[in-house]
Amino acid sequence: MSDILEVLFLQNYNTRLVVLSTTMLGIAAGLIGSFLLLRKRSLMGDALSHATLPGIAIAFAVMVSMGGDGKSLPGLLLGATLSGVAGILTMLLIRNTTRLRDDVAMGFVLSVFFGVGVASLRMVQTLPGASSAGLESFIYGKTASMVQSDFLIIALVAGVSSLIVLGFLKEFLLLCFDDGYAATQGWPTLALDLLLLGVVTAVTVIGLQAVGLILVIAFLITPPTAARFWTHNMLPMLFLSAAIGGASGWIGASVSALTPQLPAGAVIVLVAALLFLLSMLFAPAKGVIPRFLRQSRLRRKVDRQHLLRAAYEILETEAGGNEVRNESFPIKDLLTKRAWSQRKLRHVLAVAKREDHIEPAAPGMLHLSEPGFGEAARVTRNHRLWETYLIKYADIAPSHVDRDADMVEHILGADIVRQLETYLGEKHISLPVPPSPHMIDLGKEETK
Amino acid sequence: MNWTSFDNWIVIVGALCAIACALPGCFLVLRKMSMMGDAISHAVLPGLAIAFLISGTRSSASMFIGAAIAGVLTALFTQWISRFGNVDRGAAMGIVFTTLFAVGLIMIRRAADNVDLDPGCVLYGAIELTPLDLIPVFGVEIPRAALVNGGALLANLLVIVLLYKELKLSSFDPDLADTLGYSSRFLHYLLMTMVAVTTVAAFESVGSIIVIAMLIVPPATALLLTRRMIPMLLIAAAVAALSAVFGHISALIVPGWFGFDSTTSSGMIALVAGGFFVAAWLFSPTEGLVTKKFLMHREAFVEKPSAESAS
């Protein structure tokens, strides 16, 4: 137990660097990935990370042939960055000069650059006197063996990238939501695009050696997508995404440090995926379950209103122009009003019984309860108000208006109904309530 | 260069695999799902690991089944997340395949003590070794990889010939396909299954780089050369086959230029396919960059006198 706390709270010297770097990496990637998600370019990180491979191999070959240490990190990172930038330029060029779409451009860069990378890596590995086995760690990550210089590089790049993103927040937002507008306002959209992709490249490249070629992609995609479920606003989404990224890096690296045989990159990705799954299912704003509940609540409301209106209209027909009275009527009459299956009818009636809208009646008959009858009158009234409004102001033919009214009336709020009443010159319905036979003491002033 | 019967087989296997990938790739590219091949080829890792842990052998049959299931699941999960969660499909794909890859990586690492299953060998199957694994068919020794990839090619060809109209329709207008009674969802999953099976068949024998490249690059090249479906399929198949041939040849020649012995054929095959794409990009008769420049010049040249004569 104390081990766990020690690692989580950075007390342990051996794991402190690792945990700190993956956390920072997660924060930076979470920030930057949000913009990729909004531009529908999430897989850019995928293409980019594969496109760095030729650069790594070539940088290695160049450094060895110049007699240096082939595995010097800054050199490899420089090579990776250069070939990543080349990949991005190719991608933009394909997109802007052909009618091929983003996904093809990304796929092209990914596969061809990766092919070149593998081919050149294989050549380089035969170089005499230089074992290049360590280059593999770029593909699978080597989080555990991170040293202080790696940490400094990661901290520097992650910090600078985050600052750039926060500094150009307004411009990047504009670029993501409406690049055409940005261009007409005189913003250099191409330069901004390149800056954004440059930051993506930097984070991808430093992420490579921390979590590996494939898993750095998850860092850029998963946190923003998870954050998107929680909010409809961009700024909260950005910070939430950074927080989710940071938390994944922090928890993931800590867990992997405590358990031998668990590669850190993979654990980090799984933590992020778990957070994504929870967000997707339970986030109140856009999560699947809250949305499903909202929808089924609305569906229940619609069914109830349909039932009550059908009942009211049946009673109205039976009354034949006189005052509508609350009487029993055969259930099967409902089916002339609504195209419900038997099962659906049973379900709707059961719900209505639970909500006290209907009272027990003779078999095969339906009897509205007192509140049910009042609600039925109200629902029918709303429907007709809305129909009248549509006919009067929206020029909808009376023969068609029922359907159109049906689509909207269920979500009419009380204040809209009141507005309708004033438009249509209708009076509020209010029951005549006799004055109270005794004194009513509100007693508000005294108690306060 | 030292051309042997080995090299013949490598080229044949490469070409079979390349064509098998390029055909479904055309539909992927038209459906804006080019990255699916890449996603599937990473996401099969847990399928391979589970198949290995259950069967205890590296026998190709169980690995094949495990990987194919994982591949289809990738497509399924991606579809679910993007539909129920309202997530951009690229992002959904990215989340699914990185997660599955991570699961696979952990499984392999956990079982590493008694398992000879290197993630590296999954990503780069060696096409150079295919002629060593021979099985007799009607008394002739042919590489198993040729049989596997040839089978995948035949299956793809069969599906495309039988369901050509439906696949084409649902690629361009899924809603129309639905209203005409061809379930676009069924066709989507059929295509995904094709891609998954082809991918697995191919990289189990020749490595995933060829697969990813051949799913995208030949169809993209063909798309620059034609706007019709059947010519697109034919051109993609031709580009794929030529890439395999010239890719292997250049794998033998090119390293010599830099003073190296050899390199992987799969990487070079991807590179040569990229070369074809760039050629089409620049010189496509209808929309190549250079062609367009040239045409514009000529038009400016030709238009003037005709305009004068008209006035």
Quick overview of this protein structure:
The complex is a heterodimer of chains A (448) and B (311). Chain A is mainly alpha-helical and 448 residues long.
Notable characteristics:
heterodimer; A: 448 residues; mainly alpha; ABC transporter involved in vitamin B12 uptake, BtuC; Arc Repressor Mutant, subunit A; 2 domains; three-stranded antiparallel beta sheet; 21 helices; B: 311 residues; two-stranded antiparallel sheet; 14 helices; 77% helix
Largest sheet of chain B: 2 strands, antiparallel
The name of the CATH architecture of the largest domain in chain A is: Orthogonal Bundle
Structural class of chain A: mainly alpha
CATH topology value of chain B: ABC transporter involved in vitamin B12 uptake, BtuC
Mean pLDDT figure of chain A: 83
Residue fraction in strands of chain A: under 5%
If you had to describe this structure to a student in words, what would you say it looks like?
The complex is a heterodimer of chains A (448) and B (311). Chain A has 448 residues and is an all-alpha fold. Chain A is built from 21 helices and 3 strands. A 3-stranded antiparallel β-sheet of chain A has the order 1-3-2. In chain A, a hairpin with a 5-residue loop joins strand 2 and strand 3 (365-368). In chain A, helix 15 (288-319) crosses helix 18 (370-393). Chain A is elongated and about 105 Å long. Chain B has 311 residues and is mostly helical. Chain B has one domain: Orthogonal Bundle (ABC transporter involved in vitamin B12 uptake, BtuC). Chain B is 77% helix and 3% strand. A two-stranded antiparallel sheet of chain B has the order 1-2. The radius of gyration of chain B is 22 Å and the shape is globular. At the A-B interface, helix 6, helix 12 and helix 14 of A face helix 2, helix 5, helix 6, helix 11 and helix 13 of B.
